[in-house]
Amino acid sequence: MDDLRDKYIGLIAAADSEAALEDLRVQAVGKKGEISLKMRELGKMSPEERQVAGPALNALKDEINSALAAKKAALEDAALDERLRGEWLDVTLPGRTRRMGTIHPISQVTEEVTAIFADMGFSVAEGPQIDTDWYNFDALNIPGHHPARAEMDTFYMHRAEGDNRPPHVLRTHTSPVQIRSMEKTGAPIRVIAPGRVYRADYDQTHTPMFHQVEGLAIDKDISMANLKWVLEEFVKAYFEVDDVELRFRASHFPFTEPSAEVDIRCSWEGGSLKVGEGDDWLEILGSGMVHPKVLQNAGVNPDEWQGFAFGMGIDRIAMLKYGIPDLRAFFDSDLRWLRHYGFAALDVPTLHGGLSG
């Protein structure tokens, strides 16, 4: 038994894998192992011999099993150490940040526009999305025969037979908010009115519901020069460029006189928009001096007050700045699109911190 002990203790110590260790266990204490065969011979011994050999064999078996267990634990520890060296990770490094929700580009651009005009002293005004045709058309000097009032362009609310209330529409622009704001606060006033608007149109660049922002500034000595400065400052801040060139083209809007459509100098090199350089021009908004009849309809004396107004599509300027090719994708509820074009929840636009996050 001393020879068996020395033999297997040495072999167990020299084993270099769990497979080799298992082979030694079978050879030593398996059903046909050497120690197991020795224990079977106890039946052939006399009672006196069994009293001596039995305890010795049990002690030998326990010692071999203990040596096998200890060696197995040592091999497992060595394997773990090797694995840890191969899979080493510094737990003090910052983890991967996971975006908590996604801000839609329209929401982000609305905040960007609001931040820019707030810096120029404009407050935000809001109004109902379902309004009377007086606020949506008549108060804005839009005549009854104007094409915008046709049912093919405007969503009119259903009226029951005998209902004598004025017709209601889904507002076609946010200009009614200008009328309501002047009725509420009078002049002077300086507001922007972002919000949803509705028109019966649907293609790559038009949807039945979209977003606009109107601007209005009324005071005693406001001129087109003030309008030009405000729009230049806005374009520079929004597109984050140092210099821009605007072109005012004479146009006609019922609610402004004179009226002008505004283009920005740009280039489309490589398919991407670059503002402030190049030989191309891009229309971005309509503007003008508020028509005296509009001021009068809002309860403001046009002989004492004057000012400018402008309006632009939030969806359109979002497409231009962030390279979004199709307006319809804004409303498809595609999470893949939103994760690609969206913004992190904490990317709050500020002029000093950067608009685009």
Short descriptors:
single chain, 357 residues, alpha+beta, BirA Bifunctional Protein, domain 2, 2 domains, eight-stranded mixed β-sheet, 11 helices, 12 strands, 39% helix, 21% strand
Textual characterization of the structure:
This protein is α+β, with helices and mostly antiparallel strands and 357 residues long. It has two domains: 2-86; 104-344, BirA Bifunctional Protein, domain 2 (2-Layer Sandwich), CATH 3.30.930.10. Strand 8 (256-267) and strand 9 (274-275) form a beta hairpin. Helices cover 39% and strands 21% of the residues. It is rod-shaped and about 135 Å long. It has helices spanning 2-14, 18-29, 34-40, 47-86, 105-119, 133-136, 175-185, 224-239, 292-297, 314-322, 335-341; strands at residues 102-103, 123-124, 130-132, 168-170, 189-198, 209-219, 246-253, 256-267, 274-275, 280-290, 306-313, 343-344. It has eleven helices and twelve strands. The strands form three sheets. Strands 2, 5, 6, 7, 8, 9, 10 and 11 form an eight-stranded mixed sheet that branches. It has a two-stranded antiparallel sheet with strand order 1-12. The longest helix is centred in the first third of the chain and has 40 residues, at 47-86.
